[in-house]
TrEMBL record:
Residues annotated to bind substrate: 90-91, 133, 171, 175, 178, 206
UniProt binding sites for Mn(2+) 2: 50, 90, 125, 206
Membrane protein topology class: Peripheral membrane protein
Main subcellular location: membrane
Pathway the protein contributes to: Glycolipid biosynthesis; lipid IV(A) biosynthesis; lipid IV(A) from (3R)-3-hydroxytetradecanoyl-[acyl-carrier-protein] and UDP-N-acetyl-alpha-D-glucosamine: step 4/6
Span of domain Calcineurin-like phosphoesterase: 11-210
UniProt keywords, alphabetically: Cell inner membrane, Cell membrane, Hydrolase, Lipid A biosynthesis, Lipid biosynthesis, Lipid metabolism, Manganese, Membrane, Metal-binding
Protein name per the record: UDP-2,3-diacylglucosamine hydrolase
Source organism (scientific name): Alcaligenes pakistanensis
């Protein structure tokens, strides 16, 4: 089987952009409850990147903070019964095999074709398709360099944390001067990726624009965008959710909103024909 193809049977739940960390204990607790529900309703769970607000190296698990211990134990509880898959995002691109092994999960590549009861679906974190954000793509290019990651991981944890905090603050400042369109995915890139893998649907996160998106001019392709999670938002609105695949139905579930479900037989299974 290709390393970029994953065959899944049974119900699949997918979540991303959880941004778990010490500064959002309510989000952590919501995620723990989500894992409890998934353990009873899902056969497979995919966490599609930005699981953590920042990941400064797998060696954190040697002396984990209390919140990380809670999360890791809950992930192990799920993976003791079901299949757990982790994907890297732009905030946790240093997530490695050591942590995946620690929670008995499979670490996925940057993209994977899911072979499900609903047909073939292309899955990624999504940041690689934000091609109009040139500054971010330059950043992504460099931080994925193995030699640069090796230098960073050789630094003490305290220094790595300061570097990560500084980079995150710089990213937040930079967003003030970017249009929302620039920070979204490029439709042409989505079409090209779907056509390259002979699929008619993509699931991704990163953009924090949860919805079922059509692509103008390509009615047979749909883009399912995962919600970001935030239970401590300043506006008091609790955000979060996931996508489920059950039978031939894909459903987008968002906290406090009506579910969006579609029978994929109308379009996704074209990829299998």
């Amino acid at each position: 089987m290709s390393p970029n193809k994953l065959t899944l049977s049974g119900n699949v739940w997918i979540a991303a952009d959880l941004h778990l960390g010490p500064d959002n204990p309510d989000t952590v607790q919501d995620f723990l409850q989500f894992l409890h529900s998934a353990q009873h309703q899902a056969h497979n769970l995919i966490l599609g990147g930005d699981i953590f607000n920042a990941w400064i190296g797998d060696d954190q698990i040697a002396r984990p903070a209390p919140w990380l211990t809670q999360v890791s134990e809950a992930l192990r509880a799920f993976s003791s019964c079901h299949s757990l898959y982790l994907m890297r995002g732009n905030r946790d691109f240093l997530l490695g095999e050591t942590y995946a092994h620690h929670v008995h999960a499979t670490l996925l590549p940057d993209y994977v074709v899911l072979d499900t009861s609903a047909g073939l679906i292309l899955m990624s974190h999504g940041d690689e398709y934000c091609l109009d954000d040139l500054a971010y793509q330059r950043f992504r290019y460099w931080v994925r360099k193995p030699w640069l990651q090796k230098l960073y991981l050789a630094c003490p944890l305290s220094l790595r944390q300061r570097i990560a905090d500084s980079a995150r603050a710089g990213s937040q400042r930079g967003k003030q001067y970017k249009s929302t369109d620039i920070m979204d995915v490029q439709p042409a890139a989505i079409v090209a990726a779907c056509e390259a893998h002979s699929v008619r649907a993509m699931v991704h996160g990163h953009t924090h624009r949860p919805a079922v998106h059509d692509i103008p001019g390509f009615d047979s392709i749909r883009r399912w965008v995962l919600p970001d999670w935030d239970s401590e938002s300043s506006d008091g609105v609790r955000r979060g959710g996931y996508i489920s695949i059950e039978g031939v139905q894909l459903c987008l579930h968002q906290w406090g909103q009506e579910d969006q479900c579609q029978d994929t037989g109308r379009y996704i299974n074209l990829a299998s024909s």
